Amino acid sequence: MTEPADSYRETRNALRHFVAERDWAQFHTPKNLAMALSVEAAELLEVFQWLPTGSPAELNDEARIAVRHEMADVMNYLIMLADQLEVDLVAACKEKIAINALKYPVSQVRGDARKYSDYDKQKN
Amino acid sequence: MTEPADSYRETRNALRHFVAERDWAQFHTPKNLAMALSVEAAELLEVFQWLPTGSPAELNDEARIAVRHEMADVMNYLIMLADQLEVDLVAACKEKIAINALKYPVSQVRGDARKYSDYDKQKN
Amino acid sequence: MTEPADSYRETRNALRHFVAERDWAQFHTPKNLAMALSVEAAELLEVFQWLPTGSPAELNDEARIAVRHEMADVMNYLIMLADQLEVDLVAACKEKIAINALKYPVSQVRGDARKYSDYDKQKN
Amino acid sequence: MTEPADSYRETRNALRHFVAERDWAQFHTPKNLAMALSVEAAELLEVFQWLPTGSPAELNDEARIAVRHEMADVMNYLIMLADQLEVDLVAACKEKIAINALKYPVSQVRGDARKYSDYDKQKN
To answer: Subunits that touch chain B (at least 3 Cβ pairs < 8 angstroms)?
Structure first.
């Protein structure tokens, strides 16, 4: 793997240091990290659970901080998992956007929620 | 908000373009994006579901590609959500690592799974 | 544990038979079952992802069948997990409703989404 | 829909009463209920996150109570969602077990984790 881009690299290094200091690598199997990531994603979702749309106007200060922290938790687990499995996140994102551009052609899905859902259902 | 760092910014711009072309912003409320992120996190988890640890040696080529793509999906939704709620992901990650460093002091949690779990339970 | 109530018991027995025939008990640790349950819950959520409210009128035949099957998957993993950890699901549901009745007093939360959210946030 | 079986029916009625008293039906769209169910499934998963297998011996009293309560939360949301979408949970579980029995033939998957995973991957 090529080195991850700049800002990821710095965060990755801070996380490596955090884990090494605590001798927690033994608990950080890819399976456990994917599980932790999923738990944090649900904690992020919980903030929006009973809100109409979750727009900034609907979020009070406490919710805004919670969103920020839960997003960071998801991101940090994502970076630790990428580090272990040697996934280049930036390249993977770019690749997936290209795949989705082919999968959802503008001419067929533009502004169409129904089509969007149907395309997604085919995925499964 | 200050502009997000380099590599995020490029991906964010590609995602903005992807969404605008399809006129999908109308579906991308923060609540819906958090939901989609959570669904993708579960699709990532699914790859590891019945594996012992998910180490690279346990992943065949198909699983490796799936992991890469599901991680990209999580990341892309995270970037779109950060864009809408004006969260600086890099700064948030750094901030959360500092918070966790105080919450889990090396001297008390080093190599200790039980303590780790107990600390996490207090969180809830 | 007392025997689970009637309809649960029958499903539990069918699941025990299904697992035994395939010699899959070795994969069904409580941790793996909780993970599988969470993955199925996300597959259920995925059906509603881009819909406004998920009311019956918004669900086509395909979505209706998907909802039914994903709910069954969640329920089946819940019953298998309860079987292993000797949890009486019917009693636990009753108990949790009583706890929530005290936690969310009618006089304070009636028809109030904001209060509802705030109460939930205190939980974490 | 035929009336749900006995023990479900009682819990469903208790939940209907709980929601009506608080005038919370307005927040309980199927989409929101599926989201809440998914959040509770993740809270259940969180208990097992750093444990080796989650066997009863690994769970202290606090964890045991948490598991019981989170399972009840999942179950209660499942029953409320089934009530709104008129899904007969007992029948759906039975149906899904029959479908899986055909999908995973004993002769091909017996005791085989790899096959199990591969079959699951085909699903997606």
So the answer is: A, C, D
Q: How far is CA A37 from the centre of its chain?
A: 8
Encoded tokens for A3: 């080195």
* pTM exceeds 0.90 for this model: yes
Which value, to the nearest 10 degrees, does the dihedral of the CA atoms of residues A60, A64, A65, A69 take? 150
- In order of start, what are the domains of chain B with their CATH numbers? 1-87 (1.10.287.1080), 88-124 (no CATH)
**Chain C residues whose beta carbon lies within 8 Å of the beta carbon of residue D97:** 11, 14-15, 18, 76
What's the average pLDDT block by block, 10 residues per block, for chain A (124 residues)? 70 97 96 98 97 96 97 98 96 96 93 63 46
Non-local CB neighbours of D62 within 8 Å, separated by 6+ positions: B121
By the 8 A CB rule, do C58 and B54 touch? no
| Angstrom distance (rounded) from CA D42 to CA C46 | 15
* Between D33 and B121, residue with greater pLDDT: D33
Q: Which of C38, C113, C121 sits opposite A62 (nearest CB)?
A: C121
Put simply, whether D115 touches C (Cβ < 8 Å) is no
